[in-house]
Amino acid sequence: MLYNGKNNKPTINKQQVKRIGRKNSMEIRILELIEGAKKAEGLTVIIDVFRAFSLECYLYARGASAVFPAGSVEEARHMKQVHPEYLLIGERWGRRCEGFDYGNSPSQTRDADLSGKKIVHTTSAGTQGIVNAVHAEEILTGSLVNARAVADYISRRQPETVSLVAMGNGGERTAREDVICARYIKCLLEGRPCLIDEEIRSLKTAGGEHFFNPHTQEIYPQEDFWLCTKHDIFPFVLRVEKRDDGSLESVKIDSGEGRDAES
């Protein structure tokens, strides 16, 4: 059930009405990759730490007015044709898509003038998870930078089922950073002590090595590693809503506690 951008309200069926006011015991599932997104149900969090959904948070923090996730490069280009003022940001296998304004990099967009800009964003993993989560009732994006805000939002919603989808590398291979993020959100939801600083530090040599390779800095700048592994710095979530024209928008919703981030 994707939210309608006009009234910002979901369609509620009779079965859902019966559940209103009853505190549910949440079933929290951790799934992985494209296949996991296809199986996701309930309130679904599509997680991509390196770098899609970390980047989207930074884009909003830097003044973007809207971010539209797209499943394909062709869809992104079509949106640009219809709306020439849109910026195109995205990658395939790490590399900036041909003709796009920026790659999928929070550091390389740091100095861009994003105030009031509308952005189309497509990636190899994160946005693929969104378009494949066809059974989800509600979709959030997730990353370490806003993990606690995501958990706070879910705690207030109290859905019966929560699917945390760690998208991995290209949606095909497990990525430690996404699994760490999924486990962290689950831990927060369960009210358990959540110590992840050591796990995050370990990503430097086990999951994020490519950010420290001098030969790949053009594609994977070292600064992206540090920007994407900050945790709980943004106090908002990004909820995916369907627009009237059928396209999708990651809508910023202030939520819970968070520390201000230097953008």
TrEMBL record:
The keyword Magnesium applies. The keyword Magnesium applies. Its EC number is 3.1.3.71. It catalyses: (2R)-O-phospho-3-sulfolactate + H2O = (2R)-3-sulfolactate + phosphate. Keywords: Hydrolase, Magnesium. Its cofactor is Mg(2+). One of its GO terms (molecular function) is sulfopyruvate decarboxylase activity. Pfam families: 2-ph_phosp. It comes from the Bacteria. Belongs to the ComB family. PANTHER family: 2-PHOSPHOSULFOLACTATE PHOSPHATASE-RELATED. This is Probable 2-phosphosulfolactate phosphatase. It comes from Enterocloster bolteae (strain ATCC BAA-613 / DSM 15670 / CCUG 46953 / JCM 12243 / WAL 16351).
